[in-house]
Design a protein that fits this description.
Order of helices and strands of chain B: HHHEEHEEHEHHEEHHHEHEEEEH
Number of helices of chain B: 12
Distance between the termini of chain B: 36 Å
Radius of gyration of chain A: 25 Å
Largest sheet of chain A: 2 strands, antiparallel
Number of strands of chain A: 4
Largest interface: A-B, 43 and 41 residues
Largest sheet of chain B: 9 strands, mixed
Strand order of the largest sheet of chain A: 1-2
Shape of chain A: globular
Helix content of chain A: 55-70%
Oligomer: heterodimer
CATH class of chain B: Alpha Beta
Strand content of chain B: 15-25%
Number of domains of chain B: 1
Chain lengths: 452, 383
Amino acid sequence: MSINPFSVKRSQILMFFFLIFFVSSYSWALSLDESKHLLLRAGFGAKPTIIKQLSGLNKKQAIDYLLKAQGSHAPLPICMSEALPTRKERKAYTADQRAVKSKKRRVCANELKAWYLQDLITDEAVLSNQMTLFWHNHFTSSVRKVKAPQLIYQQHQRINEMALGDFSKLLMAMVKDPAMLIYLDNVNNSKQKPNENLGRELLELFTLGEGNYSEADVLSAAKALTGLGIDPNNYTSVLRNNRHDNSEKQIFNDQQIRSADDLVHAILAQPQTSKYITKAIWLHFISEEDTTQINRIAKTFAKDWNIAILVAAVLSSEQFWQDSGKMFKSPVELTVGSAQLFKGLKVSPKRLLKMQRDMGQNLFDPPNVKGWPKGKNWIDANKLLVRSQLTSQLARAISANMAQMGAPYCTGNMAALTALDVPKMGSTENSMGGNCQKKLVKLVTDPSWQLK
Amino acid sequence: MNRRDFLHLSGASALAAAFPSLALATTNPPVLILIELNGGNDSHNTVLDLEQLGLYKKLRPTLGLAEDERVNLDKRFALHRSLKAFKEPWQKGELALVHGLGYPEANKSHFRSIEIWDMASAHDEYLSAGWLANVLPKISRSEIDALTFGRNALPFSGGSASHVQLENLSKYFKKIKGVKENSQTSNNSALSHLLGLNQNIQDSKAVLMRGLSKEITLKQNFPNTNFGKQMADIAKVIRMDLQVPAFKIAIGSFDTHKGQKGKHQQLLKQLADGMMALRAELVQSGQWSNVLMMTYSEFGRRAGQNGSGGCDHGTAATHFLMGGRVRGGHIGAYPSFEHLENRDVVYNVDFRSLYQSVIRSWWQQEKYILSPGLASLDIIHSV
């Protein structure tokens, strides 16, 4: 066997050029378009303060920067610190008292939503917030059913802390989360009378996906979760042994489980779980599925369940960087993004929340256990109309307050605002005159404003 | 030439303009109103087979309907008492009960199973268009083929049908006022999706504005529930003679895992009141013989009750067909409580044969086949 020295040399040269190309394309500083694309997807839009931070960074550094950004949160609404009633107190309520309490709860839930909305607008940890919302839409719970804003907040806090952390811990925390146990009826799941709601959704929506488990698996999962409920006085999760079915149950053909912990471990041992989660996160950031890439990333994910590494892998993929303008902004992205871009936009949180609701995204209150819509399901004719209302309102606000809202973009680069070039925008020169105002109005009312 | 131009030129349209009453009699396509019982209706507590009462009580010792919670329909069947009003159309032969509707290898996920029903697919088949998405354009004589009130427009989506989704008419009118034409085209699929929706809005605006100018006032009082108000809007659009062949409306949530009795009673009452008001309105306007209402749901529920005063996801269910030309009576056999599979009743009428029968006998689209080999159900008689 002989080696042709010439060919070795040629391949070395090729490798050299390839390396130069690869390293440099990866280490080059981001263009403005790239920063904008990254922030439209990994954040809520090209927030000016962050655009500034990203300038000069390359892709890897920019992704790292976003992954490591630390959040800062405004103080919580006062009602969140009020203790929930003990069982004795609840039992003693008169009908009138009950009505008053339920009214108070609704008010408190609205305060919590307004707080969260404000947090999303001001907080700089945009990627962490983006992933927190992703998990809210994955491990769904609704304040409407749970009826205790405090428990919904506790769940939010857990999710926020682990949004870019260890998935195996997040999953375990969610299975035992008090709001979740109420939302999916596990508080009623006992050995004597099983209720399979949580067991089923855990397999179908949270970990394996439809078609990757049997009806027998659902039954075993539900049994393993029996007795897992919440303390009626302090609302922490508890396991009641007298309600728990501790028998050995078979799941996924060959695994034996008894408890909720066993169940979570068995689920994590299924290769499908890492694929399902990776695919969900991939499709959160990229418009088209790529099975090869997803399987590749999932393999690594299954080893350490590190969500940050998974997200970094998705955001570093070639597919991500070539996908600009091909996804729909969610209602939260549309509203929060607009508020971030146009400082001085004076819309009450109540009104913004109503708009989000009308567009189909009610914070802490998804329509069902599958969560808010995704992809093109965000928009139908009716929703598009609500979005048009929102953008015309935005356009009016900008026109009325050009000095504060429009000026930064009249002197700077308007292309940083939107995912696509708007047709008939004319030349790129911007001036402070009526021309700039017209362009901004055109920009935010054009259909492409809905895209990211 | 697009469809709208064609309509303007076509003889039927010219005739319709000259002789509106003639047009009504000859050219109005039959109307289908799909009613989605969202969440999986417990049909065992909606329609009861009294011959199986013994087993029923055993399976549902506390959830089962007691004698005063049901009304007898005939010697063998009873309805939940919230559906008492259905006795009138039943006696007039305008109500059919289709028993045991379902499909093989039932899927118990809300989301997957409603998709199976809406796409008319097999349990392991993933289709991209709803079961009405490509047949409606053949029937429709309007620029807009279907209106969805409330959630889930899947039956109309993904094909060539032009449709819009709205909460109610007055909100919709308010919203569409300011919407402008956009003649842009794009090869970005996301953008072109938006532009397509914008075109549908324009079309629906033209059609509904035409209807609005007719200043229809309803003669019936519709119930003041969300469902009732949406049914009133559907009645209004039908009375506007806009030739829209299909509507969809949803009511729910029927996902009664817990504390079912009160909730189920309310929902069925809302359902019955809304359907009966629409019937009365269209009987009065002389259009009842041109309308068919059909209920459906992602699945029925488990034969036995669960431990929390409700029941879990199940399989086959009884559904209702109501309309002026419906062939009243029972279709299919009520599933047996004796022969359960995995604690569930077994389906005996494939829901797709019901759909196929609607396409065949309601819309006369003999050649439009959803899937080969579907049985033909005798659901409609001619006037």
